[in-house]
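Ticket opened by: R.M.
Priority: normal
Category: complex prediction / small molecule

The reporter submitted a protein together with flavin-adenine dinucleotide and asked that the result be attached to this ticket for the collaborator who will pick it up next week. Submitted input follows.
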Amino acid sequence: MYHESILYLRIVMVGNKLNKLIKKVIVLGGGTAGWMSATLIKKVIGSAVDVELVESDTIGTIGVGEATIPPIKLFNSVLGIDEAEFIRETKATIKLGIKFDHWKQQGQSYIHTFGAAGKSLPFCHFHHLWLRSRQLGNTSTLWDYDLNYLCAEAGKFAQIKSKDPILELPNAYHFDATLYAAYLRKIAEKMGVKRTEGLVEDVSQDKESGFIQSLHLKSGKKITGDLFLDCTGLAAVLIQRKLGTGYEDWNHWLRCDRAYAVASERFEKTLPYTRSIAHSAGWQWRIPLQHRNGNGLVYSSTHYSDDEAAGILLNNLESEAIAEPRLFKYRTGRRIKQWNKNVIAVGLSSGFLEPLESTSIHLIQSAIVRLLHLFPHDGIAESAIKEYNRQSKIEFEQIRDFIILHYHLNERSDSQFWSDLRNMEIPASLKLKLDIFADKGLLFRDQEDLFLESSWLQVMLGQGVTPKDYHPIADSFSKDNLLHMLQQIKEIKHEPLAHLPSHDEYLKNISKL
Ligand SMILES: Cc1cc2nc3c(=O)[nH]c(=O)nc-3n(C[C@H](O)[C@H](O)[C@H](O)COP(=O)(O)OP(=O)(O)OC[C@H]3O[C@@H](n4cnc5c(N)ncnc54)[C@H](O)[C@@H]3O)c2cc1C
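Result attached by the on-call engineer:
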């Protein structure tokens, strides 16, 4: 489950301005980051600023990034996007969670769903009741009380219209990244975003402040602006090449540094979840779209040669590859200042966290929303830059910790890669979270953490942490009452299954709308 309050927009005024009025925003880059930024900025404050997007057709976009998390629905709805149209245009499918295969041990699986198991009591999460019930002989897993899990396994989906939160079925999407950028471009241009095609070859800065003044294109054209969004992907043309901002490397925790991606034929049945399949030195993703599967292998180049990695990926597709595998090299970490002078890095230019929990597109969304909160319409203030960078740092670190959790909690004995990760020193923030859960079964959500307690719970339980204790409130029920209550919750969670269409039927019906 995900924290969604980031979309409540509020424009904050900050004193101590360093620059002139912001009348023109230049977005450099036309990948997912560029078009999401241009569209939302135009939608929210388009009457106050002009937005121009510059992109190079010769460079193109990264063309991967197809699995999302539920807050994307809020992004789409703020833009007034019709869901049926979006699903048709981007060949999207429904995502109810991520299935992790072989992460704890080979042969073992669990799903990190977007839902929450059971029904919590005030001061007592549902899992405490379930933990006690296990001691009383209940053999159901936590996931037996999670509607997202039940629908994922049954391959079923529809939007459930119930006011009872116990029947919520939160979803995200898998979509074709290239089609999504093209779809947003149409919306943005209709709203008045100007698009310029061209390769930026040079950049001018103000001599005193170092602020960017203009971009110089290969064609000879000069593009001036007041605020620049660097959406140039891993090239980081403005934030790094021009401003030399610096990067914090997290490779000592997250050892994978390369990925191969390849598309393959779709399966007959479209699964409503992403697959993440662990291998001996990395993991493979499988993303079901309407017209094909997106696949990739994220791996450590210390442990696999590129040829070996490509071979592992191609041998594990389970359907025919329809393109040649493409190689990506990256450094996991974050840009030290994501806002530097009058440049804000959005998307891959701001840092890289591997796609294990599909968080990069969300980081784009949250960067734009943060900028809109702190938008420097009457001048850039150092305090606003500091606040923006403080929030971005926390956000990146929280997601980093959640990803490290998956690697650290493994019991695999088949490779040095997994035993090194199990034995590595983890960030103190993560260690505390793990210890308190293992000792007491307790979960606390850090302020603004994207991942809610149910997400941490599922990954910790799914990868083998069984708490030694549960909350004493669970003891306030008699044995019979507790088991009866859990049985009732389970029945309520199972009820919708009989009426829901299959995921494929749902997609077929929605494409007719
Ligand atoms: C292997 C892999 C798998 C991923 N999977 C997921 C996933 O499942 N879910 C998820 O949320 N994220 C995922 N991501 C991340 C996701 O792909 C990106 O966050 C997203 O695509 C945004 O990319 P971008 O727009 O920042 O960069 P890009 O798509 O690379 O766009 C860069 C743009 O900048 C332009 N440009 C660059 N240099 C210049 C120049 N000099 N002049 C003019 N224009 C220029 C290019 O033309 C292009 O338009 C994945 C990333 C990788 C590498």
